Amino acid sequence: MGTGKSRIGWELSRRLQLTFVDTDRVIERVSCMRITDIFEIYGEQVFRDYETEIVKRCVRLDEVIVSTGGGTTVREENRRLLKARGPVVVLTASPETVLKRTRRHRRPLLEQGDPLERIRDLMQRRAAAYEDVAAFEVSTDGRDSVDVVEEIVEKLQLWRDDNPEAEHHLEHHR
Q1: DSSP state of 9
Q2: In what helix (H) or strand (E) does residue 14 lie, and over which residues does it extend?
Q3: Model confidence over 36-68: pLDDT tens digits?
Q4: C-alpha to C-alpha distances, 89 to 53, 133, 148, 151, 159, nearest whole angstrom
Q5: What distance in Å separates the CA atoms of residue 140 and residue 92, rounded to the nearest whole number?
Q6: In angstroms, how far is the first alpha carbon of the chain from the final one?
Q7: Residue 81: which H helix or E strand, with range?
Q8: Structural domain of residue 25, as residue ranges?
Q9: 23 with 72: CB under 8 angstroms?
Q10: How many structural domains is the chain composed of?
């Protein structure tokens, strides 16, 4: 949340000439509801179920960059699906940066107590899931999106060089 996944994902897709899919936007379109309304009316569990269904569909697509919600990787099933598909890039930012970036938008998971403490708590609880799923991490703190995208491209090339068995898989799915 607030690390720049949507923006960076879109710019990365342009740079690599791939289709961009933002799972949160897909959920909103398919459900005809905003995510905040899904949380409010149906609860987080229903949202996470939608999220898993969208991930299942996204991993079948070719030539895509998929941006998932910040909590997507908490479910083991989602991590397994994403890791099997290709390299997963985890974007990071400090709690202060996340708060600054999310302050103007309603975030259901930040509406309980002190938002900065809630961000720290979410980051701590999700850290193991991010570590499990990540091919690598890239910080977006205080950085221009063009620089972040270039770092991701460089790390993807290194990842591909270090994972020659994935070459056929990536060429097939690029």
Answers
A1: H
A2: helix 5-16
A3: 999 999 999 999 999 999 999 999 999 999 999
A4: 20, 8, 11, 11, 11
A5: 6
A6: 26
A7: helix 76-85
A8: 5-173
A9: yes
A10: 1
